[in-house]
Write a structure and sequence with these properties.
- By secondary structure, this protein is an alpha+beta fold.
- The protein has one domain: Jelly Rolls, CATH 2.60.120.
- Helices cover 19% and strands 37% of the residues.
- It contains two helices and eleven strands.
- The strands form two sheets. A six-stranded antiparallel β-sheet has the order 6-5-8-3-10-11, with no helix packed on it. Strands 1-2-9-4-7 form a five-stranded antiparallel β-sheet.
- Helix 1 packs antiparallel against helix 2.
- The protein is globular.
- 31% of the residues are buried.
- Bound molecules: fe (ii) ion (FE2).
- The site of fe (ii) ion has 4 residues, from strand 3.
Length: 197
C-alpha cells in the first residue's frame, strides 16, 4: 500500500482534531474550560512539525497570509494555518466569535484587554490591559466570543501557527476595532447572512 502523503496525513489530523473539538463543545458548550481543552488539542497538532512543512505554505512578502486547512460546510468551524511576517501587528479588536491559536514557529505577542465602558455611547469605547501571552512553538491562546486582543510578531522570524475559529473567516460577524488613545471604536460589517447574524 502506498504511503500516505504529507497532505493526506495533515488532512486526516485536521479532521481528527475537529472531530475531537466537536466532541468537547457539543457536550459542554463553549466555556473557558472547553476553550482551554481545545487550545491544548490545537497545540498538540501544532507540535507535529512534519505535517506543516514550510514548502507547502506560501509565505506573504509582508504582513500576513491565512491558508485554509479545513473549513467545515454548513457554517461550521474554520481551521487555518497563518503566517505573519516580522513586524505584523493588529490593533486591539474582538472577533465576535471564539478563537484558539497555537504556534508552530516564531513568536507572536497577544495582549488582552477588557472593555471598561458600558457601550452606551456609539463610537466610543475604553479598554484596559489585563494580560499577555506569547504564542510560540507548542504554546497557544484561547479567546471567548467578545474577548479583545492585539497582536504583534516579535523577533525577526515569521510567526507560523494554527488558528481555529467558531466560524470560517469568510463568515465572520462584525469585528470591533478599538483605539484606546482616542477612546473610540469602530465595527466592520458582518460577513454573516442577515438571517444568521
Ligand atoms: Fe484577532
Amino acid at each position: 500500500m502506498p504511503k500516505a502523503s504529507v497532505a493526506d496525513r495533515r488532512a486526516q489530523a485536521c479532521a481528527r482534531l475537529l472531530h475531537q473539538v466537536h466532541a468537547i463543545i457539543e457536550i459542554e458548550g463553549i466555556t473557558p474550560s472547553t476553550l482551554h481543552a481545545t487550545k491544548l488539542k490545537l497545540a498538540a497538532l501544532a507540535k507535529r512539525l512534519e505535517l506543516f512543512p514550510v514548502t507547502d505554505f506560501a509565505a506573504p512578502v509582508a504582513q500576513g497570509r491565512t491558508h485554509p486547512l479545513l473549513v467545515e460546510e454548513n457554517d461550521g468551524l474554520g481551521l487555518y494555518l497563518t503566517i505573519n511576517m516580522p513586524g505584523k501587528e493588529a490593533a486591539p479588536h474582538d472577533h465576535g466569535i471564539w478563537c484558539v491559536n497555537a504556534g508552530i514557529s516564531g513568536r507572536e505577542r497577544h495582549i488582552f484587554y477588557r472593555r471598561t465602558d458600558d457601550g452606551s455611547q456609539p463610537g466610543l469605547a475604553s479598554i484596559e490591559r489585563i494580560g499577555e501571552v506569547i504564542v510560540s512553538a507548542g504554546v497557544g491562546m484561547a479567546m471567548s466570543d467578545h474577548d479583545i486582543h492585539d497582536t504583534e510578531v516579535v523577533g525577526m522570524e515569521p510567526a507560523i501557527g494554527l488558528a481555529l475559529y467558531g466560524y470560517s473567516v469568510t463568515r465572520f460577524p462584525s469585528v470591533v476595532w478599538y483605539h484606546p488613545a482616542f477612546g473610540s471604536a469602530r465595527a466592520t460589517p458582518s460577513r454573516r447572512h442577515p438571517a444568521m447574524a
